[in-house]
Design brief:
The protein has eight helices and seven strands, in the order E-H-E-H-E-H-E-H-E-H-E-H-H-H-E. The chain has a single domain, classed as Rossmann fold, CATH 3.40.50.720. Helix 3 (about 75-85) packs across helix 4 (about 105-135) and helix 4 runs parallel beside helix 5 (about 155-175). The chain has about 250 residues and is α/β, with parallel strands linked by helices. The longest helix is centred in the middle third of the chain and has 29 residues, at about 105-135. The mean pLDDT is about 95. Strands 3-2-1-4-5-6-7 form a seven-stranded parallel sheet, with helices on both faces. The chain starts with 13 loop residues before the first strand and ends in a 7-residue tail after the last strand.
């Protein structure tokens, strides 16, 4: 355990963030770079990744890749190690919500949702874990959701994937924490992102969600900064297999 002033430091660590081109993934990637980590941002859209790099201070590298394609993950893990060395930290922020109601769920929509939200975090981590084991230190941060424990309309596939993230996180901890690798999940409440545009485009609905929190407002991107630094740093050395809800108390009511 480090000195108190260094407990939350990620300076010099190598961090990979999926979904870094937009939303909460972009915020996480930017924050870690500004905190002194070497950050590899991964997303499908090369142009959006370039925008992220241009707007971000710090050591960054971008890889445009469709991580839903499981066959590319081994090569991706290899490419991640080229700029700064093997990643110490991986944040699985990429995700999709098709918002198909139960009667209209398609096999393609189901498979895409479960593939990107649940399968990719496991298989990409599996490729990165050997490098973490070699260092005796690693941080895996999955993205949970309000729908990890709550059922929302049009969220049956998304909710199933996010409920799975909770158990995946516990199973990762059981498997890899003896090697110095913690695995935790962060569960955002309602934040304005591309994924939640449908919610925030309805002011009445957005206000209703804010009223359901204990704090009385929806989340701002910087509300995730502290919790993410905690889960990515030495400060959380004895925390693993947990889901940390960052939802203003939405799930407490």
């Amino acid at each position: 355990m480090g000195e108190p002033s260094n407990l939350f430091s990620v300076r010099g660590k190598v961090a990979c963030v999926t979904g870094a081109s937009s939303g909460l993934g972009r915020r996480a990637a930017t924050m870690l770079a500004q905190a002194g980590a070497h950050v590899i941002g991964v997303a499908r859209r090369a142009d959006a990744l370039a925008d992220w790099q241009n707007e971000t201070q710090g050591e960054t590298h971008a890889i445009a890749c469709d991580i839903l394609d499981r066959d590319v993950l081994g090569d991706l893990a290899h490419d991640m190690s080229k700029p700064f060395g093997a990643p110490d930290i991986v944040i699985h922020a990429a995700g999709i919500n098709t918002r198909q109601v139960a009667d209209d769920v398609t096999p393609q929509g189901w498979d895409t949702t479960l593939g990107l939200n649940l399968s990719t975090p496991f298989f990409l981590s599996q490729h990165l874990v050997p490098g973490m084991k070699a260092k005796g230190w690693g941080r895996i941060v999955n993205f949970a959701s309000l729908q990890t424990t709550r059922a929302f309309p049009g969220g049956i596939a998304y909710g199933a994937s996010k409920a799975g993230i909770a158990q995946l996180t516990r199973a990762m901890a059981e498997a890899w924490s003896p090697d110095g690798i913690t695995a935790n999940a962060i569960g955002p409440g309602f934040f304005r992102t591309e994924l939640t545009a449908a919610v925030f485009n309805d002011p009445e609905r957005a206000a209703g969600n804010a009223a359901q929190t204990c704090i009385g407002r929806n989340g701002e991107p910087n509300d995730l900064d502290g919790p993410l630094l905690f889960l990515c740093s030495e400060a959380s050395a004895y925390v693993t297999g947990q889901v940390l809800m960052v939802d203003g108390g939405f799930t407490a009511k």
